[in-house]
Amino acid sequence: MSRSNSTKQGRQARADAEITIGKNKKVKIRFWVELKNETFLASGRVMLLERIDKYKSISEAAKSMNISYKHAYQLINKMNQLSSKPLIETSIGGEKGGGAKLTKMGKLVIKEFYEIKKRIQKIFEQGFE
What we know:
Elements: H1 3-13, E1 17-21, E2 25-29, E3 32-35, E4 38-42, H2 43-55, H3 58-65, H4 69-82, E5 88-91, E6 99-102, H5 104-126
Antiparallel strand pairs: 1-2, 3-4, 5-6
């Protein structure tokens, strides 16, 4: 499977809202949050933040999502640049090596993303009643 097919399948699997119409039709939508006319949050970015919180490591989070460390780092860097406060804090070196942790702001934006997602799903379902 090519990387583009893998990415496409990943996006389809991460539909942010879905509704079944009739027997065999599904309508799926994705949304993202922009700041300063740039993508700030989307389902994949939120998943990355959640995995960093779980593994305490950008590298392990990236591996678990089948993306490169470089790509994960670029996404985190962009989110941190756009945010009023950092979402992730990293540490380097030490006896156990470096690590990463989600900040309070990181936890807040994840919560806000899911609140938006819930509202969109509700509106989406009401539109097809």
